[in-house]
Amino acid sequence: MDKKIPLMKLENINKVFGKVAASKNVNLSIYSGEIHALLGENGAGKSTIINIISGIYTPDSGIIRYEDKEVKFASPKDSIKYGVGTIYQHFKLVDAMIARENIILGQKNGIFKKGKKFEEEIKAICEKYGLDLDLNKYVCDMSVGEKQNLEILKVLYRGAKILIMDEPTTVFTPQETKRLFKIMRRMKEQGCAVIFISHKMDEVIEICDKVTILRKGETIKTLKVEESNQDELIELMVGRAVDLTIEKVESEIGKELLQIKNLTVLNEEGSEAVKNISFNINEGEILGVAGIAGSGQKELCEAIAGVISTKAGEIVFLGENIEGKNPREFIKRGISMSFIPEDRLGMGLVGSMDMVDNLLLKSYHLQKGMIIDRKPLIEKAKELKKSLEIKTPSISYPIKYLSGGNIQKILLGRELSLKPRLLVMAYPVRGLDINTCFTVYNLVNEAKKSGTAVLFIGEDLDVLTQLCDRIMVMCHGSISGTIEADKATREILGRMMVGSKA
Fold first, then answer.
1. Where do the ABC transporter domain residues begin and end (predicted)?
2. Which residue of 63, 85, 220, 382 is 20 to 30 Å from 371, comparing CA positions?
3. CA distances from 411 to 18, 42, 189 (A)
């Protein structure tokens, strides 16, 4: 095909939900043999455009062209017919099936796709794109990287020419990211078009050919990556220059605040998620925790916060063993701890409530008398809305309708306003745009300055090395090592994440 003709072109795409214009005259040209990034803050319209290309949403107006011919996507089946394959951040795989069965699942005449011809077709695709996968392996036994390879293989087997990759490296080690980029380059060489969505600017610059910036539902600019830089891209996304330096706050390390002794915690299936680990955190210190997803980080946080029970070990807070006590008992006993869970709406906040009621959740049982005084909380909600630049129609608006970044600001604002001695954070910037991420980092640093001890579970290794004092690495529920942040590199941490010692 003539390289000058886009494989797919979106012209003046508009999509409105109620009174919100999610897409306003969006224009996007995707060429074969190119990796094209979509960048924008939370709420910029990236998901809407991806859902339109995938056939999940139908645009209210505008034209979609495929190889210069106008097409209409009324359902995902239509987009698949025109070679669109979407690989979501949360994989669409059946854990109890092997790889081969997952590929067959949902295919036309799938039950008949067996035998030598099927094997040869899969083998040819794997060789063509450099995919390495055991077809007889159960999904539940696969690493995150293997699961993603299976998702890629699934869409390529369906004949995909345009691959949409939504935050594909979120829970990857540096080694897994390198392997994925190698596969993406092979796809590009074979004439595929890849639409890449990521909040990690260094990855966008490393792997992409072009970038289209979206802001408030509109196309701001499309440019070649080689002709731009990180600062320019972020300024286009946010609408103003942003300082990307994470401040390394120097504070006096105080006395030991939290000590974990021989802690073992079970997961929901009854297996040991945390296996006999011991560590400590001091006042005014940020201890980062790195590890491949599912290495026990979530269960560790929830056990410390009193959300789940432990199998063995001690959780010692200022000399008192608080193991077995729940969050309400913490508050009544004056144990000053705040927890920012991974599941913001499921565990942290109530989506149907507004800002004021969500602030009230943490303090209503401390008020005396039968009548709850809401006035101080109304003032606090107004103060947080202004200081954290929370975008909401009003403090009385249900928070479930807000973007992920604004929900996280409300949760952080509530917990930090209580001035905790210990702050436990599980993936506090997951899925947030760069501007909101830096708001979170600044809040963490402010807590550190005031003497708060912070346990920071993170995914971005660069952020962990810049923000934290020490980094503890978990692998399969155990601690593979702890390292001073100023001595850590992505490569060292990556090796520790797969079980090698520093």
1. 8-241, 258-501
2. 382
3. 27, 17, 45
